[in-house]
Amino acid sequence: MSRPGRWAALSPEDRALLKRHLRAPLLTFLALLGLLAVNVALGATLPFARVWIVELAVVTVMVAIILLVSMEVRKEPPLVRLFSALGFFWVAILVGMTLTDVLAR
Amino acid sequence: MSSAPVPEGAVEGVGVARVAHFETVAQQRQAATLGIWAWLITELLLFSALFLVALVVRIEHPEATIAAARHLKFWIGATNTVVLICSSLTMSMAIAFSRMGWQRAMVRAMLATAALGGLFLVLKGYEYYADWDEHMMPFLADRPFALAETPAARLFVNLYYVATILHAVHLLTGILILLGMTWMAARAGFLARHQNWIEVYGLYWHFIDLVWILAFPILYVVNRSS
């Protein structure tokens, strides 16, 4: 337990360090809350037909933010990036082949 | 997240103790990250299959699915999404504090993350109770299903329980592991030997958040509209 926990007890250097490290998590948090608010508003009011298209687009952006920023995929080495991309590639095959069957009946 | 993993020796008292079968600490860190990603991919496929079934049910039985989805507790689901987004923030803070060597702040952020996970489960439990109260548990033989006149609604409601209970099990497991890790992380010298444990665990927590970010719209939101 090495550092004081109170803001007032922090040195100017520590405050600058804190701001630098927490900037991205806080911006991510605000972005996710904002996008969730959009989806909740659309889901609660159902303002137009096929609103689900917009809702799924918003979710896609939220997932991308979590993957790239919160899970730091953008900063990982190429092999880890490949693994994370492969996961979604397999999901695309799963969804694509299933829907090809269901929608072609 | 704020910054890349800490280079060895960059912050005093923060690092990873190399084990014998790795040549370098960097290799050890990378292997740990790759390992958790390999597992997360299998989890992604598991949940994706469930969400895909929800989509097929919607395509095959649109009216029944909409009727069932409108019975779900939309506002509790939305509140729980906010709770998990908050927990992702506190987990990111714990990782940032671990990289800075601020052990006490890191431990507090980890405890806050576990508490928010617990709050999610409490709200989910209340939601299940409300579902039970409204006869929305078609698998209970002694309790008539509220949407019995639309038999296909059972498919969607049963799928809703499978997906959300599976997510809740992952969350409960995550909370227990997090509390165990917090107990270890509060000890002197933890950050000097195992700083990357916090980062690896953080990937799991963010993934649980990601699954719910998908589950909430797929189960609660998109099926409200025709």
Question: Mind explaining what this structure looks like?
Answer:
The complex is a heterodimer of chains A (105) and B (226). Chain A has 105 residues and is an all-alpha fold. Chain A folds into 2 domains: 11-70; 76-105. Helices cover 76% and strands 0% of the residues of chain A. Chain B has 226 residues and is mostly helical. Chain B has a single domain (42-224), classed as Cytochrome c oxidase, subunit III, four-helix bundle (Four Helix Bundle (Hemerythrin (Met), subunit A)), CATH 1.20.120.80. Chain B contains 6 helices and no strands. In chain B, helix 4 runs antiparallel to helix 5 (153-185). The radius of gyration of chain B is 21 Å and the shape is elongated. The two termini of chain B are 38 Å apart. Chains A and B meet through helix 1, helix 2 and helix 3 of A and helix 1, helix 3, helix 4 and helix 6 of B.
Indicate the topology.
The complex is a heterodimer of chains A (105) and B (226).
Chain A (H helix, E strand, L loop, with lengths): L11 H34 L5 H20 L7 H26 L2
Chain B lengths: L24 H36 L1 H8 L4 H27 L2 H31 L19 H33 L4 H32 L5
Helix pairs in contact in B: 1-2, 1-5, 1-6, 2-5, 3-4, 3-6, 4-5, 5-6
